[in-house]
Amino acid sequence: MKKILITGALGQIGSELTSHLRNIYGVNNVVASSKTRNEESRIVEEGPFEIVDVLKVEDIAETVKKYDIDSIIHLAALLSAVGEGNPALAWKVNVDGLFNVLEVARETKCAVFTPSSIAAFGPSTPPDKTPQDTLQRPTTMYGVTKVSGELLCDYYFKKFGVDTRGVRYPGLISYETLPGGGTTDYAVHIYYDAIQKGKFTCYLKEGTAMDMMYMPDALDAIVQLMEADPNKLVHRNAFNITAMSFTPEKIFAEIKKHLPEFSMDYHVDPIRQEIADSWPNSLDDSVAREEWGWNPKYDLSSMTVDMLAKLREKLC
Ligand code: NAD
Ligand code: AKB
């Protein structure tokens, strides 16, 4: 990667990825973009920023041409809970938006990274140690768009030689930008509420296990995969990756070790509970480990120490 365009750069991942990539590749070699400008965002101030609505193919094409982009990190999307609220828009942004990015990449010979998700699996998928290649019949519109995206990326590689790569992220936990309306968001909000209120109401019920990852590992995955030797990649797109799997009571117990007064109760949201129940409990990420050396640094315990320290700095 030499000249990088990030779409959806003001979201949970993009807002941290932009600075991370600017540190590695140089500020002027990483162009952040989003549908609208947020003057308060550090990302807009820090380096090149363009308005790119991924539903407008000309926005993408003009920006790629203007900056001589060779790699597109495509993050613009609607997440699971928001997507269930507006399935038509979720399809448009997640599938038509990706299609536009792939078309521009085909014409300009750009490489493309785009994340899939644990949402690409469904209730008929083996839920424990979910294999890399297995049944995928998701029951959410978000999941349908993610499977479609995985297939589109495979197609553009096989048919047109576009260098497409991607991972299936689990729920991502971070302290810089709040998550954009997913089912795993509780695992971020619990840290904020632990520090700010000393109590948390969880919208998922006890025993709901899902894969999760701390943001520094999620950012490393992008760089590692995009820089990986293409000859070693058998799968290319949609690699299962994970760093930990936990339930609400397990993350609560981990935070309570540091904040003994912290308490949690439950008020289950049936929509997000149904989504969470349809996703795996834990992924098998051995293929990513074998093909490009995936090896996360953070587990629940070390993530919790860092999250609480960073949020105390930010909020207190
Ligand atoms: P986010 O919701 O925080 O950010 C997405 C950004 O896309 C938002 O800033 C939004 O304004 C922008 N956007 C929406 N429509 C757009 C359009 N038409 N044109 C341009 N920008 C538009 O999402 P995120 O958490 O940063 O996720 C990025 C990617 O990673 C998505 O593909 C998501 O499915 C995937 N992913 C995220 C997680 C997670 O836990 N955050 C987990 C699995 C996969
Ligand atoms: C969501 O919950 O929608 C995302 C995801 C796992 O894709 N965090």
How would you describe this structure to a colleague?
Helices cover 44% and strands 15% of the residues. It has helices spanning 14-25, 42-46, 57-67, 80-85, 87-108, 141-160, 186-196, 215-226, 248-256, 270-278, 286-292, 300-315, and strands spanning 4-7, 30-34, 49-51, 71-74, 111-113, 116-117, 164-165, 167-169, 171-173, 199-202, 210-214, 239-240, 244-246, 263-266. The strands form 4 sheets. The chain has a 6-stranded parallel beta sheet with strand order 3-2-1-4-5-7. Strands 6-8-12 form a 3-stranded parallel beta sheet. Strands 9-11-13 form a 3-stranded mixed beta sheet. Helix 7 (186-196) packs across helix 12 (300-315). The chain is globular and about 55 Å long.
Average of pLDDT: 97
Flag low-confidence runs.
Answer: none
Biggest β-sheet description: 6 strands, parallel
Structural class: alpha/beta
Please report the total strand number as a whole number. Answer: 14
The small-molecule ligands in this entry are:
nicotinamide-adenine-dinucleotide, 2-amino-3-ketobutyric acid
Order of helices and strands: EHEHEHEHHEEHEEEHEEHEEHEHHH
- Tally of DSSP helical segments: 12
Strand order of the largest sheet: 3-2-1-4-5-7
Give the overall shape. Answer: globular
Strand content: 5-15%
Helix content: 40-55%
List keywords for this structure.
316 residues; six-stranded parallel β-sheet; three-stranded parallel β-sheet; 15% strand; binds nicotinamide-adenine-dinucleotide; binds 2-amino-3-ketobutyric acid; L-threonine 3-dehydrogenase activity
